[in-house]
Amino acid sequence: MSWKLFKFAVKHSLRNGPNFIRWFYMCRSKRITRWKNPCASKPIQNTPVHILAGKDHFAMCLWTIVSFIEATQRNWSFHIHDDGSFRGDEHESLVDMNLPLTIHYRRNIEEIIRSKLQMFPLCQQMRDRFSFALKVFDVCLLNPTDRYIMIDCDILFFKKPNEILDWVDSNLMSFYVSKDIAEANLVSCEDAQTLFGIKLWPCVNAGLCFIPCAAMSLADSENFLDKSGLLQMGKVWTIEQTLFSLHASLANSGGYLPATYELSLARDRQPDSISRHYVGAVRDRFYTEGIREIAGRIGI
What we know:
The chain is α/β, with parallel strands linked by helices. The protein contains eleven helices and ten strands. It has one domain: Spore Coat Polysaccharide Biosynthesis Protein SpsA, Chain A (Alpha-Beta Complex), CATH 3.90.550. A seven-stranded mixed sheet has the order 3-2-1-4-7-6-8, sandwiched between helices. Strands 5-10-9 form a three-stranded mixed sheet. The protein starts with a helix and ends with a helix.
């Protein structure tokens, strides 16, 4: 456990008491690996699911995957992208779960990705500086089909996500994103119109997206980075979401997921929510609300 995660655990244990400790430990333990994919005998969906994770988030990632399969009752091809912090033995704990899953260890794919970014130096610079840039570049470059679903590892699913399944079954090439609770774009609507001739989608959150690969052109990413000066701006933690907003706006097909794919700062999730994105301010609820409910459903 990293020092950052240790401080998080201590802080919320003091605030929430034994309830937090119990569910934090449930998530961090290997009990989730006792779960076996109930859809393993079903055909694998043609649309892969990608998740970026670090070693401190690997356990969360497994709970995200389990909740997604339980909610959809389908078999999916999962791709976990190592942000560079994985130990290298993460796959060993997954053998008995019967998951169609590939872990892309960063050290193993660096040469491949760098060769694909040779003609796009700003994209390479962004990827070198920010691990979350792997969501922009690696996911699309390593995706084996023409579409994919991207999920952050702090999202859990509680009900059947019909919008996702309809998009998959209809072979749509539209671009769907979550709507954020506040504007995080580093490019204003005016600059997006002036620099790129596009009407910017506001409040884009890249935690849960359905994306056609053609909409994530490297040439467009390079152009966005070049003309906007994004790499020289201050709030760098939102640079990845800004790029997704620009790509989605340029594609201009699809839109926002409904509010039932919840992204909020409320203490309790809404009763009708299909999923919930437990962003930083409510991350403790990932454990005390989300893990508690999913663990009860799957009986571990």
